[in-house]
Design goal:
Helix content: 40-55%
Distance between the termini: 36 Å
Shape: elongated
Number of strands: 23
Strand order of the largest sheet: 1-2-7-6-4-5-3
Largest sheet: 7 strands, mixed
Length: 805
């Protein structure tokens, strides 16, 4: 069995000096200690040869001199040559100078493309991929020594499908396989030599090889003969070891993202910096997703603790509006106390999802109550009767005491005298005959002189004012006043209700009634997901209303275009309408997928498919992969950009990577799986160097790594037994799953897209669940608890499995 025989690398990415690297992707040939610790980039596995539309098959535009100029460049001569050649191969028809340098090797070279891929699959041969560029010295050396050698040429041509690739023409392909070589050897450079399966998965990689054995090192001929032997006699181990390396590469990005977040984590109050502190829901969702696949590790436990502690401290802090619900924009201090008082729709949407997720992973009702609290605020203060959602509430308003100037936080803060005047009643049975004001002020940190430090109030607008923050648990407050916890909860709720009435009488901050498609998409997800987890029909119905608003008011069916925005009572009447951008499509599609899982009404799935097709046409980059932020045909936009950071909102490419993966499972469109992979490849540098910048995209990468589960419920939508199985699924946080209903209608949207659903049926007339992954399904289960067990740990009372034909 071939082992790691030798390795010598002058430096990573070295263009000079003989770099000898052989990566043996066999059992035992790779260990985590061998992977590069410096410049590891994310390898994107391509499970099937790209389709004709794949950017991996489209040549990049370039300018070339005539082919004859380059025919003899490998030997360093200049100008055209009239010398006749003993050998010619199909590279003679190419334009790349580098490929033309190899046009007369005694090797049956192919350019990168479908012809080579098809031949590899038809003949079931491994691919030898050789990558370089026309001015690469050691590329020339390897050509003279090996590729012009008749014996080596014969071995290559008879046993491999040989592909020659110009890295400057196809940097995207070069990046993919160089990542493999770097990660498995610790070095890299050109020429790059990689051996692939017919499905384009690498299993051995290296750089320059001498032609024959030297000083105990295997030469290129020896390497080739050993690979041939392993391919013929030990192929499963060869391929599976390569797969393990690729999967380790994927997982490494998630581990690095966790480590970077852990390094920036502030332990006392949670969050990821000292001050100012932002909610950063994308970080919290990553941490909880990371925990789901690392439950038994110390890192997984730490990730969950970081997320839950941050969410708890935010909910207790002044960034959370304890009287009128919802969350303010960010905290100006490290303890989440004094906020910037603006309220943004996108924050409410993402935080509602984060809190309901926290309730799923922790089982704590506290987090579910906060999620409902957020949606209560949005329903009351940010909702339009059309079904849409307004964008924001301002931070500033006129103080209740009057005056010409607005002040930040005036609508939200309280003086101690206001609280005492509003809550004067003595509470019977309390120590010292405390008033309701005493209890409230103790619990929420209200002080006579105000509780805002001068450094948190640079303009002096909050002098003598109090920003409510929970200073004690209800248990400690109960002990302090000698009453029960239940009594404290009752008293505090009563006090908050009285203060809410007073708040309503104050001059309100400015309300931005603009309804943005993208932010409405985020809020659609929030109502759908919270409603689904809680089994709250009202919340789900509000999500349906939001979906209807988007389709009626922000979708131009005639032009097949999402509109960016509309305004209160003026939807579709803005002139001219602004067409939607990438985030509008991506966020709405995500919301529609969440709405389908909440309602199991396929009309939302169908519209999601329609929008994704349109997004691909408008924004996809055929050359580099990924999506442009705006329509690249718009000549008024001087620069075409792709956002590479998940910030206050997730980047649209991050959301799209997940959308494409989910939709590929719902529709059977394999091209969307490939697009998701190509998108992630396009951001591989960013993902592997600073994954903390793209935590939502790392979640999409993890979904690729762990493969989505397909949970199929066979039953009638509203039947009690179906509802029980659905409730079992929705009670769990399963970030890497798609949920679908098979109701027996073979003409349904899903059955037409996924014929296998027609073969799934109820057992003995009872609603039945199938859990499938990688085209293999568990035996059907009908008991909700058994389904929960299957989803959590992959086991049921039955160990048998069936294959989905």
């Amino acid at each position: 069995m071939l082992r790691l025989a030798w390795r010598r690398s002058a430096s990573k990415h070295s263009r000079a000096g003989p770099t000898c690297v052989l990566t043996a992707a066999y059992s035992g040939a790779y260990s985590p200690q061998q992977k590069s610790q410096g410049d590891l980039r994310c390898f994107r596995q391509i499970p099937h040869p790209p389709s004709d539309r794949s950017p991996l098959l489209h040549p990049r535009a370039a300018c070339y001199l005539s082919p004859s100029v380059f025919m003899s460049m490998a030997s360093g001569s200049e100008g055209p040559s009239s010398t006749s050649h003993k050998h010619s191969n199909r590279l003679a028809k190419e334009r790349s100078p580098y490929l033309l340098q190899h046009a007369h090797n005694p090797v049956d070279w192919y350019p990168w493309g479908k012809d080579a891929f098809d031949k590899a699959k038809n003949e079931d041969k491994p691919i030898f991929l050789s990558v370089g560029y026309s001015t690469c010295h050691w590329c020339h050396v390897m050509e003279r020594e090996s590729f012009e050698d008749e014996e080596i040429g014969k071995i290559l041509s008879e046993n491999f499908i040989c592909i020659k690739l110009d890295r400057e023409e196809r940097p995207d392909v070069d990046k993919v396989y160089m990542t493999f070589v770097q990660a498995t050897s610790g070095g890299g450079g050109w020429p790059m030599s990689v051996w692939l399966t017919p499905e384009l998965r690498p299993f051995i990689g290296g750089t320059y090889f001498p032609p024959r054995d030297r000083g105990g090192r295997p030469g290129f001929k020896t390497v080739l003969t050993r690979i041939i032997d392993q391919w013929q006699n030990n192929r499963p181990a060869l391929e599976s070891s390569g797969e393990r390396i690729i999967e380790a590469l994927k997982k490494d990005v998630a581990n690095r993202c966790f480590q970077q977040l852990a390094h920036s984590y502030e332990e006392e109050y949670g969050g990821f910096r000292d001050a100012p502190k932002f909610p950063s829901p994308v970080n919290l969702m990553f941490l909880m997703s990371y925990w789901t696949v690392n439950r038994s590790t110390s890192e997984g436990v730490e990730a969950l603790q970081m997320a839950l502690h941050t969410l708890r401290m935010m909910a207790l802090g002044g960034i959370h509006d304890h009287i009128a619900q919802g969350f303010h924009r960010y905290s100006t201090d490290s303890s989440w106390h004094v906020p910037h008082f603006e309220k943004m729709l996108y924050d409410q949407a993402q935080l509602a999802v984060a809190y309901i997720t926290a309730s799923q992973v922790s089982g704590e009702q506290f987090f579910a109550e906060v999620a409902k609290d957020v949606l209560l605020y949005v329903s009351r203060d940010l909702s339009d009767k059309s079904g849409g959602f307004y964008s924001a509430e301002d931070a500033d308003s006129v103080p209740a005491s009057g005056g010409p100037e607005k002040r930040e936080g005036a609508f939200c803060v309280w003086t101690a005298s206001e609280v005492r005047e509003l809550l004067p009643d003595v509470v019977e049975g309390t120590a010292g005959n405390a008033t309701l004001a005493d209890i409230f002020m103790h619990h929420y940190g209200v002080k006579e002189q105000g509780n805002v430090a001068p450094e948190q109030d640079p303009h002096g607008e909050l002098q003598g004012q109090n920003v409510l923050i929970v200073r004690y648990s209800v248990e400690l407050t109960a002990a302090r006043f000698g009453i029960t916890v239940e009594k404290v909860n009752e008293l505090l709720a009563s006090a908050r209700a009285k203060m809410a009435v007073v708040r309503k009488s104050r001059p309100r901050p400015h309300l931005d009634t603009k309804m943005l498609a993208s932010w409405n998409g985020l809020m659609l997800s929030a109502y759908a997901r919270v409603g689904a987890v809680l089994g709250d029909k009202d919340l789900v119905e509000r999500a349906v209303k939001a979906g209807g608003f988007l389709k009626e008011h922000l979708w131009d069916a005639k032009q097949q275009t999402i509109l960016r925005s509309c305004y209160q009572l003026k939807c579709f009447n803005t002139s001219p309408s602004i067409s939607g951008f990438l985030d509008d499509y991506a966020f709405i599609i995500c919301g529609l997928l969440d709405l389908y899982e909440a309602t199991l009404q396929t009309e939302w799935l169908q519209w999601a498919e329609e929008l994704q097709l349109r997004q691909d046409v408008l924004f996809w980059d055929d050359q580099g992969g990924g999506y442009f932020c705006s329509d690249p045909t718009d000549s008024t936009v001087l620069l075409q950009l792709k956002e590479d950071q998940d910030g206050a909102e997730p980047s649209a490419n991050s959301v799209s990577a997940f959308n494409l993966l989910r939709l590929s499972h719902y529709t059977g469109r394999q091209e969307w799986l490939q697009k998701s992979q190509q998108l992630l490849t396009a951001f591989s540098d960013r993902l592997t160097t600073v994954p903390i910048a793209l935590p939502e995209m790392v979640r999409a990468l993890m979904a690729q790594h762990y493969t989505l589960k397909q949970i199929v419920i066979c039953g009638q939508r509203d039947a009690p037994d179906t509802t029980s199985l659905l409730a079992a699924v929705k009670s769990l946080f399963l970030p890497y799953k798609v949920l679908m209903l098979a109701d027996g209608d073979t003409e349904s949207f899903l059955c037409q897209r996924l014929p296998v659903l027609s073969s799934m049926s109820q057992l003995r007339g009872v609603a039945t669940a199938y859990v499938c992954q990688d085209f293999t399904c568990s035996l059907p289960v009908t008991d909700p608890q058994e389904l929960r067990r299957l989803l959590l740990d992959g086991t049921t009372e039955h160990a048998d499995r069936m294959t989905a034909e």
